[in-house]
Specification:
heterodimer; A: Ribosomal Protein S5, domain 2; about 35% helix; about 25% strand; B: about 350 residues; Rossmann fold; 7-stranded mixed beta sheet; 14 strands; about 40% helix
């Protein structure tokens, strides 16, 4: 999936996460994370974001993640939605993995 | 606790903003705030039941202003909903970073929005940024221009437009220093657009080999765009605007470039600006702070005949199209630009 514009998902509310994905001119992934629980879960959040992007087939993007203590499933969903929006995909089917 | 529906949130600008302006003004005044004239987009929360305004936040380009939440809704998470909408609107509008000034005691609320303070003056004011990674990357880029020497000078100017007075100030600094860093204020509160101002500054001092002109940034701020809506009197506004300007410079920019001294022109006419220099001196040098003090050196302003050369004078002459007088106080490059600028404006008006 190619990132062609800025895509956002999520909110700043507690237990949510705001994800902004924008193009990075074919030079890989750049992840900027800000989290209330960076100390405890920083590496787990990074891993989750990277895995989700890999699953979506995103290899070049700037990802800004502002976490307010979201659960992993929320992070995954927000990253996925932001990636689809940033790629201009409108008719994708979001599914719960079996 | 009474349960009620969540407030309805709406983004208003243009004509719709005009139609709700009186209600917004009334709402803000209950929060002891004024409606800032620079704000052109508001996120407004309406009570689900009676439709009155219960919260709002404004956006002036990438500066968040005029944030208020009704007392009965505080602690309900409404401010975070409003904050999300403001940030999303701004991001969608093409900005990737946001700033805000707030009373020191309110900075906790905006930490909740994900803003971090970059300058804090206890009991007074906080200057906060949404994306502090931008500040680090700006400083990393700036550090590439670092020069060594025993005296590194700096000048911050708006140059609206560049005059012989600006030239004189930079020239004096360049004689006393090994290197001089010139910073241009980026914000477009000026008659002459930023790109043109930058071009005229570069052209006007291109022959001085030890002067480096830096493009403007979000971190070189101007008193002209400091928000005034949350402060009561002119003295307070002046003090806090200058304080934020000075401390941003002292804490981030000066250490990055090893700057020792900042040069300013003396201000014999305008009392506000004269006051500004004194406040600048206080926060750059005498105010106890964890960054090295920066000296402030005042240079007597250049005069022509019996008046002081200033950009204000040039703009006044420009409005009268008095190019013979302008010619005496600006460099050739500025003069020919202004002739052109004036014709363009005339064409546009016609």
């Amino acid at each position: 999936m190619k990132i062609i514009k800025k895509g956002m998902a999520g909110t700043l509310e507690s237990s949510d996460v705001l994800v902004v994905i924008s193009p990075n001119n074919d030079i890989g992934l750049k992840l900027v994370l800000q989290s209330k629980v960076e100390k405890q879960f920083g590496s787990a959040i990074r891993m989750c974001v990277k895995n989700t992007l890999a699953m979506c087939g995103v290899s070049d993007a700037v990802i800004e993640v502002r976490d307010q203590g979201a659960l992993e499933c929320v992070i995954k969903a927000r990253v996925e939605a932001a990636a689809y929006r940033a790629a201009g995909e409108t008719n994708s089917r979001f599914e719960v993995p079996s | 606790m009474i349960t009620r529906g969540d407030p309805r949130i709406d983004v208003v600008d243009g004509e719709r903003l005009e139609s709700v302006r009186p209600q917004l003004e009334a709402f803000l005044s209950t929060n002891h705030l004024k409606l800032d004239s620079g704000v052109n987009t508001f996120v407004v929360a309406y009570d689900h039941g009676d439709g009155r305004i219960v919260g709002c936040a404004g956006l002036d380009r990438n500066i968040v202003k005029c944030v208020g939440v009704d007392e009965s809704f505080r602690g309900s998470g409404l401010s975070l909903k409003i904050g999300t909408e403001v940030v999303k609107f701004g991001l969608g509008d093409g900005y990737d970073d946001f700033f805000l000034y707030t009373k020191y005691e309110n900075s906790r609320l905006f930490r909740g929005w994900g803003f971090s303070p970059i300058i804090e003056i206890p009991e007074q004011v906080s200057f906060m940024e949404f994306n502090p990674a931008r500040l680090s990357s700006y400083l990393a880029k700036l550090s590439l221009e670092k020069k060594s020497g025993s005296r590194i000078g700096s000048v911050v100017m708006n140059a609206n437009p560049f005059t012989n007075g600006h030239r004189y100030l930079v020239e004096q600094a360049s004689k006393e220093c090994d290197w001089v860093h010139v910073f241009l204020v980026k914000e477009n509160a000026s008659l002459i657009p930023y790109d043109d101002r930058l071009m005229l500054v570069r052209a006007g001092i291109s022959d001085l080999p030890n002067v480096i002109v830096h493009a403007g940034s979000n971190y070189i701020i101007s008193r002209a765009t400091f928000p005034q809506y949350f402060l009561k009197n002119a003295a307070e506004i002046n003090e806090q605007a200058s304080a934020v300007d000075a401390l941003l410079f002292r804490k981030y920019i000066a250490p990055t470039l090893d700057i020792d001294v900042r040069y300013v022109g003396t201000e014999p006419i305008d009392k506000t600006t004269a006051m500004y220099n004194r406040v600048l001196m206080k926060y750059l040098y005498t105010y106890p702070y964890d960054s090295r003090p920066i000296k402030l050196k005042e240079i007597k302003r250049l005069e022509y005949g019996d008046t002081i050369v200033s950009a204000t004078a040039v703009r006044a002459l420009l409005s009268k199209r008095n190019f013979d007088e302008i010619k005496k106080i600006v460099p050739e490059t500025t003069l020919s630009f202004l002739r052109n600028f004036d014709t363009l404006r005339e064409d546009r008006a016609a």
